[in-house]
Design a protein that fits this description.
The protein is mostly helical. The chain has a domain of 116 residues. It is 83% helix and 0% strand. It contains 7 helices and no strands. The longest helix is centred in the middle third of the chain and has 30 residues.
Amino acid sequence: MLRKILSYGALAGLIAGGSLSAIAITLADKGMLEYGEVFGYLTMLIALSAIFVAIKRHRDQTLGGVIRFWPAFGLGLGISFVASLFYMLSWELAVAVTRVDFATSYSDFLIEQEKAKGASTEALAKLKADMDSFKVLYANPLFRLPMTFLEIFPVGLLVSLVSAGLLRIRAFLPAR
């Protein structure tokens, strides 16, 4: 089972992290925030479909077509953890390669959005102060690494729950 966790987790992490790195490298400071969140979470969901495949294959090939919820969920959780580590490391690599200042780009993006909405001067000043604090925190790897990990892990948790819930039903996509 550890082999499945590592191989499917690495696959999912490389897909999600690879696409994240590609976006960071190709777009750097050129508007990666406009649609990056939608594209990023969609890519995560596609990459983490490896969880469903792994649980189904384990159920059908190793367990004779039957798996209980908790073992299936545990397998999915392990894959999610490994995938999240790969994703986190991919982001760090992309930031190191591109030298992109994500915190500043993100801060500027949010401030411009609020200006476009017609936010008051006081609200903009508060947002700027909050973003300055964020920049300081984001420069610290002890803040940035767990934050990046937590971008993808909840998606993996959700995919694990749904996959384990569906695949515990023997009649759901039975083995041929």
